């Protein structure tokens, strides 16, 4: 009974208080459950990059603050972990000024970057080249520093002997907040005369100033010391920081940067809307990519960038085209500063062959579910053209866009074999054997299944392109693209203006040949007409339109214009000044032909099959113009002299009787009977031409100044078949 009595109250106590204990436990766990519900697990990490050209000023500070806060807002809305990359760039040609960052602006920037607000993101200072001046303070305020292999920190203050106390305190404060670099190294960079030691103790390696070293020796056992930064050194290079692990990784391009941050290459993005609002336009690339396409789109983009546009939607519906033109366009798109303008390729239907590479040169690719990307297209590329395009992708386009090159190149290169590869962190990529053997990839990837065998270019449907990472996402229509980027209104469709349409029309081969025919026929007409008249004006207009269209179309330059004008000058010199047809005539004609050929193509000497084909088209254009000139000359001589009103534009050819008389006189070379006789010029004498002396039409040469048509002249000298005349003064 005692046991029962003793147990009963205890059992009753447990029975009575159990619900209360459960309620208390629930109350304690409720905030945790609510927090978990309000903060669901983050699905993925995404990197946003902002470029900061040195020197830094108040405008740069405001951009950083706006970028950081907008990125945090978007990350919270998209439920992603933001990795904010601040890239410090030294502009070319401004190396001297790069170290002159405004300390006040940099201090406010560093204070913001090291604040509790920014602890919600991973902040990274990326230094591809060097970081001079007080911009170092902003880098110290980030949680991590990544540098290029040859990059350096400093000099900050040069060889300044006195560092103001507030500046020294600012560096000390930021270094203590973040511990990105040890405080001693931060102060050593600020003050070049300050020596910094690395001291090995029983607790590890510490970096201290001489004063700190003495204190360290009193507190613990110092096993060894090394002069890490000697007094007088104003810079520390990445190699010296990398060796002891003060910086974790090198990165010389966007792909290496993504790898260093353990992010997929596509997860490192430049988003201008994080520092402002989208200003959007749309440019269409539809149909074959032909000559002048790169220049046309480049002009439209540059014109709109000057208007402040920062979002360009390139609507592509093309089966490819000219390899060199596509390569030029892709190279241009890849080189656009992605922190200033976002380029998005929208492919609802197809971007085959070279058009696929144009799409991949944009920052992002959005496809329709059944869109076609890659494969064969309009033009059959030769092996040399494929190799050249592959080199462009490998050396320029892929590094600029932070992509592995082989998967992109497989869209046009039928010889590439691509494998699905993974590495221990779970990251997945699609690489070729050649890429797997590169030092940065060797031993880091496990090769799994083959996804593309050699034999034909890689052709993907929209969903497949998204799965392989060649497209950002798929949408059903253009409205879906607008929703994807949060665009309220349709992007403005920009098309060529009247001048661009005129240039494109004039640049067509048929129109170009017509301009040359009319120009040369008009020039011929001018040479047989008095003074400078309709023929000369028409020739000037035709040749000006031809070179203007080729010039703005991107195939001609001032060299071709000067070469053509020099050729015309040589021909005129040969005709009017130097008798006969010699070196000036032949050289002038050759210069004109070369100028016209060069004005019709983008190269001087052909290097591949496409360029040889383009050269053939240029030669056919010149041949067509020459044939048209011969036909025009024939009809002008037959019809124009007898035409009403227009007959005065050209001298009528002599009839049969006159031709017989002229031939007999020229055969006998007997013009002595003309000495002292008077007549009237029937053509201008520049100085050679024709004059009617009595009833005869004679080839004459002006003795002295040139003589206009219809002027009275007198034969003053006869030398064989050369008849010299002098103009008579009219009282």
Topology:
Blueprint (H helix, E strand, L loop, with lengths): L1 H37 L5 E10 L4 H21 L1 E10 L13 H11 L8 E6 L2 E2 L3 H6 L3 E4 L4 E2 L11 H14 L4 H8 L5 E6 L2 E5 L1 H10 L2 E8 L6 E2 H5 L11 H7 L7 E3 L9 E7 L6 H13 L5 E7 L5 H13 L6 E6 L2 E2 L2 H7 L3 E4 L4 E3 L8 H19 L3 H5 L8 E5 L5 E5 H4 L9 E7 L6 E3 H6 L5 E2 L3 H8 L6 E2 L4 H9 L2 H19 L6 H19 L5 H19 L6 H16 L10 H31 L16 H13 L9 E4 L6 E6 L2 E7 L9 E8 L2 E6 L4
Parallel strand pairs: 1-2, 1-11, 2-3, 3-5, 4-6, 12-13, 12-23, 13-14, 14-16, 15-17, 16-22, 26-28
Antiparallel strand pairs: 6-10, 7-8, 7-9, 17-21, 18-19, 18-20, 24-25, 24-27, 25-26, 27-28
Helix pairs in contact: 2-3, 5-6, 10-11, 11-12, 11-13, 18-20, 19-20, 19-23, 21-22, 22-23
Descriptive overview:
This protein has 731 residues and is α/β, with parallel strands linked by helices. It folds into 5 domains: 1-39; 44-194 and 231-266, 2-enoyl-CoA Hydratase, Chain A, domain 1 (Alpha-Beta Complex), CATH 3.90.226.10; 284-416 and 454-493, Alpha-Beta Complex (2-enoyl-CoA Hydratase, Chain A, domain 1), CATH 3.90.226; 499-556 and 599-642, no CATH class; 654-727, Beta Barrel (OB fold (Dihydrolipoamide Acetyltransferase, E2P)), CATH 2.40.50.140. The protein has a 6-stranded parallel β-sheet. α11 links the parallel β13 (311-317) and β14. α11 (323-335) runs parallel beside α12. It starts with a helix and ends with a strand.
């Amino acid at each position: 009974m005692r046991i029962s009595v003793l147990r009963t109250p205890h059992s009753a106590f447990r029975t009575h208080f159990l619900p209360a204990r459960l309620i208390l436990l629930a109350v304690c766990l409720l905030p945790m459950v609510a927090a978990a519900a309000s903060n669901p697990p983050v699905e993925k990490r995404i990197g946003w990059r902002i470029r900061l050209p040195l020197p830094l000023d108040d405008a740069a500070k405001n951009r950083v603050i706006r970028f950081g806060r907008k990125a945090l807002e978007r990350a919270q809305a998209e439920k992603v972990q933001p990795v904010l990359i601040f890239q410090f760039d030294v502009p070319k040609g401004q190396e001297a000024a790069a170290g002159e960052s405004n300390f006040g602006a940099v201090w406010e920037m560093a204070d913001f970057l090291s604040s509790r607000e920014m602890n919600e993101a991973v902040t990274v200072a990326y230094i591809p080249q060097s970081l001079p001046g007080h911009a170092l303070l902003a880098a110290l305020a980030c949680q991590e520093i990544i540098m290029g292999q040859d990059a350096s920190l400093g000099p900050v203050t040069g060889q300044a002997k006195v560092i103001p106390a507030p500046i020294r305190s600012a560096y000390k404060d930021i270094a203590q907040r973040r511990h990105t670099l040890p405080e001693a190294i931060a102060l050593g960079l600020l003050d070049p005369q300050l020596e910094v030691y690395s001291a090995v103790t029983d607790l590890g390696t510490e970096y201290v100033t001489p004063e700190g070293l003495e204190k360290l020796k009193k507190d613990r056992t110092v096993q060894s010391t090394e002069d890490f930064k000697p007094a007088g050194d104003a810079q520390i290079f990445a190699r010296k920081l990398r060796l002891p692990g003060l910086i974790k990784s090198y990165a010389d391009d966007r792909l290496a940067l993504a790898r260093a941050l353990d992010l997929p290459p596509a997860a490192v993005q430049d988003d201008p809307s994080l520092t402002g609002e989208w200003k959007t336009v749309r440019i269409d690339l539809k149909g074959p990519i032909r000559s002048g396409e790169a220049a046309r789109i480049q002009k439209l983009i540059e014109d709109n960038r000057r208007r402040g546009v920062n979002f360009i939607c390139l609507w592509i519906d093309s089966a490819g085209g000219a390899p060199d033109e596509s390569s030029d366009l892709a190279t241009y798109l890849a080189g656009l500063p992605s922190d200033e303008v976002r380029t998005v390729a929208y492919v609802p239907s197809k971007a085959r062959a070279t058009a696929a590479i144009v799409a991949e040169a944009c920052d992002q690719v959005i496809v329709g579910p059944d869109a076609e990307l890659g494969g064969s297209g309009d033009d059959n590329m030769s092996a040399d053209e494929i190799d050249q395009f592959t080199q462009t992708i490998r050396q320029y386009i892929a590094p600029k866009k932070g992509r592995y090159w082989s998967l992109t190149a497989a869209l046009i290169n039928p010889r590439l074999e691509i494998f699905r590869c993974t590495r221990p962190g779970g990251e997945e990529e699609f690489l070729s054997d050649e890429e797997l053997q590169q030092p940065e990839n060797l031993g880091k990837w496990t090769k799994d299944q083959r996804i593309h065998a050699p034999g034909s270019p890689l052709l993907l449907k929209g969903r497949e392109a998204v799965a392989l990472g060649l497209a950002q996402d798929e949408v059903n229509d253009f409205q879906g693209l607008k929703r994807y980027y949060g665009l309220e209104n349709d992007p403005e469709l920009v098309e060529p203006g009247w001048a661009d349409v005129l240039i494109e029309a004039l640049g067509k081969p048929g129109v170009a040949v017509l301009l040359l025919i009319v120009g040369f026929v008009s020039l011929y007409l001018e040479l047989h007409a008095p003074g400078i008249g309709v023929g000369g004006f028409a020739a000037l207009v035709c040749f000006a339109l031809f070179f203007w269209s080729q010039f703005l179309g991107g195939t001609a330059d001032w060299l071709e214009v000067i070469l053509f004008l020099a050729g015309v000058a040589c021909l005129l010199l040969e005709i009017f000044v130097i008798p006969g047809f010699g070196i000036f005539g032949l050289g002038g004609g050759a210069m004109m032909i070369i100028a016209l050929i060069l004005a019709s193509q983008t190269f001087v000497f052909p290097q591949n099959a496409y360029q040889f084909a383009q050269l053939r088209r240029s030669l056919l254009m010149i041949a067509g113009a020459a044939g048209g000139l011969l036909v025009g000359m024939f009809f002008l001589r037959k019809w124009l002299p007898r035409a009403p009103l227009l007959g005065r534009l050209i001298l009528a050819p002599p009839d049969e009787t006159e031709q017989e008389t002229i031939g007999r006189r020229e055969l006998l070379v007997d013009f002595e009977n003309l000495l002292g006789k008077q007549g009237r010029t029937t053509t201008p004498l520049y100085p050679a031409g024709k004059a009617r002396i009595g009833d005869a039409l004679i080839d004459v040469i002006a003795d002295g100044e040139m003589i206009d048509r219809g002027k009275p002249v007198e034969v003053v000298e006869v030398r064989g078949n050369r008849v010299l005349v002098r103009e008579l003064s009219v009282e």
